[in-house]
Design a protein that fits this description.
This protein is α/β, with parallel strands linked by helices. The chain has one domain: Rossmann fold (3-Layer(aba) Sandwich). 36% of the residues lie in helices and 16% in strands. The chain contains 9 helices and 8 strands. A hairpin with a 2-residue loop joins strand 3 and strand 4. The relative contact order is 0.18. The structure holds adenosine-5'-triphosphate and magnesium ion. The site of magnesium ion has 3 residues, from helix 1.
C-alpha cells in the first residue's frame, strides 16, 4: 500500500487536471498537518489552474536521470503554498519521449516519504513514459469520464489496451455530471459493468471559463455541489491513508431570537 493516487482521463478536456488539483487543494486546505504533493506526470505542463510556477519537472530531470535527487532540489522546483507542493509537468512537449516509466519510479522513491499524500495528474495518453510510469506505480487509480457518448465509446475502445498493460482503474469518476442527462449513473454503471461503490460523480458547475481566466480551480468559486463532490472524493483518499475524516461543521439553520 502506498500514498500515491493517480487521476487519469479517458480523453482530452474531461477535467483530469481540474479534479486532481481540486482534491489536492481540498486536502491541503482542510488538513494542514498533511503535506500534500500534486504532480503532473504526463506529456504536458498542465498549469492551467496555477499562477507563477517556479520550475517544472524539466529543472530536476538531470538529478532524476542521475539518480541524485535530494528533497531540497525537489522542493526548489515546486510551487509551495502552506502544506501544498505543486510540481508542474513538461513545458517542451517535444521532449516527452525522453521521460520513461523508470523516471517515475525513481522520482517517487526519492520523495514519497516526505509527503503524506501524493496526487498525480497522469493526463489522458498512454504513449508516454510518465503516464505509464505513474499508472503502474499504484493500485489507487481513478479514471475520469463524462456523460458524452464519444467519451463512453472511447473507454470501450481503449479498455483492452489498458488491460493489456495491466492497468485497471478501481474508481470511475463521472465529471461535469448533469442529473438531467439521459446517460445516468445507473446507465453508465450497467454499460461498463461496474459496481455502485466504484462510481462517483462530480457535478458540472458554472465558472469554468472564469476559473481558466483566473488560473484557479473551481473549488475557489464555492459551488456547494462541486465542493461536496470533491470532499467525498478526498475522503476516499484520506480513508486510504488512515487519516480520520473531519466532520463538517453544519451551519446553524435555526437561530433562537431569545
Ligand atoms: N465539474 C466541472 N464543471 C464545469 N466545468 C468543468 C468541470 N471540470 C472541469 N471543467 C472544465 O473543463 C475544462 C477542461 O478541464 P481540465 O483542464 O481539467 O481537463 P483535462 O482533462 O485536464 O484537459 P487536457 O486534455 O487539456 O489535459 C476546463 O475549462 C475546466 O474548467
Ligand atoms: Mg490536463
Amino acid at each position: 500500500m502506498n500514498n500515491f493516487f493517480v487521476f487519469h482521463g479517458i480523453d482530452h478536456k474531461v477535467g483530469t487536471t481540474m479534479i486532481s488539483q481540486s482534491v489536492a487543494e481540498y486536502i491541503s486546505n482542510n488538513y494542514d498537518d498533511l503535506k500534500v504533493l500534486f504532480m503532473t506526470l504526463n506529456g504536458r505542463e498542465s498549469t492551467e489552474y496555477i499562477k507563477d510556477i517556479p520550475e517544472t519537472i524539466e529543472g530536476i530531470k538531470i538529478h532524476i536521470d542521475n539518480k541524485m535527487l535530494r528533497i531540497e532540489d525537489f522542493k526548489r522546483a515546486c510551487k509551495i503554498t502552506d502544506s501544498l507542493y505543486i510540481l508542474a509537468g513538461i513545458t517542451n512537449e517535444l521532449e516527452k519521449r525522453y521521460y520513461y516509466p523508470d523516471t517515475v519510479s525513481y522520482l517517487l522513491s526519492a520523495v514519497a516519504s516526505y509527503f503524506e499524500v501524493i496526487i498525480i495528474d497522469s493526463g489522458n495518453e498512454i504513449d508516454n513514459g510518465l503516464a505509464v510510469g505513474s499508472l503502474s506505480s499504484t493500485d489507487n487509480k481513478f479514471l475520469i469520464i463524462t456523460q458524452n457518448e464519444s467519451t463512453l465509446k472511447r473507454w470501450e475502445r481503449m479498455k483492452p489496451i489498458y488491460n493489456k498493460l495491466e492497468i485497471y482503474f478501481n474508481r470511475f469518476i463521472v465529471n461535469k455530471f448533469d442529473n438531467k442527462d439521459p446517460f445516468s449513473l445507473n446507465y453508465i454503471m450497467q454499460r461498463f459493468e461496474l459496481l455502485k461503490p466504484n462510481m462517483l460523480k462530480v457535478e458540472r458547475t458554472d465558472y469554468d471559463r472564469q476559473a481558466e481566466m483566473d488560473y484557479k480551480t473551481l473549488l475557489e468559486y464555492r459551488n456547494e455541489k462541486y465542493n461536496h463532490d470533491i470532499e467525498e472524493l478526498s475522503n476516499i483518499i484520506l480513508t486510504k491513508i488512515g487519516k480520520p475524516i473531519k466532520k463538517k461543521q453544519r451551519k446553524n439553520i435555526w437561530r433562537s431570537f431569545i
